[in-house]
């Protein structure tokens, strides 16, 4: 990989074909969880890709049996206890979404296995999302004790409608790849052994097509997302507010102990 991407050592980068850049979440021992450094690099890399004249299409996938399990417990606990860390991650979370929306290159996600948190942001904001049948898509924010921020409010209702969005975001129930395709949350679902080949084929078609036509079409369509910016900003701010409350501590503890959370049923909100 060229010096252009030397600063992104927490992400595995390669070129599976000419003018195609592949980003792989590479922390398989923890289902490709995202720590603080990875979160920052995942936020910034889209600006570099936008300026890269050698890249016409981007693939995002995960190493091993998972796409990405989202933020690791260490990062979550830092956010809950440190205002400066919380504000840094808040800015990164906003920039991550807007940087993907504004990146001029088409992005294709290959969602293999579990997908949540910051990884799911990229998986669902990708211009074309392809899930394997073993995919397990879940927005676990309420299970953690915080509002469904990140990308949920800006993209889920647009993809699969308000009724399905509320059902899955409020309950935190997971979706298989097949169910995600059925309700329109992802573009395609394919057999797991065909996932990477399918995505590479799509990326190759996009990388060799009319670049001005593809990029201008993406820009135009993404105005739907830009128009929802205030909805996204509110959801992310409320998510961060939740990290300052007691529920997130119980949420993390229950996840570490692999038990059902015991949230206080009373709430002043």
From TrEMBL:
Pfam families: ECH_1. InterPro entries: ClpP/crotonase-like_dom_sf, Enoyl-CoA_hyd/isom_CS, Enoyl-CoA_hydra/iso, Enoyl-CoA_hydra_C. CDD domains: crotonase-like. Belongs to the enoyl-CoA hydratase/isomerase family. NCBIfam families: PRK07327.1. This is Enoyl-CoA hydratase/isomerase family protein. It comes from Hoeflea poritis.
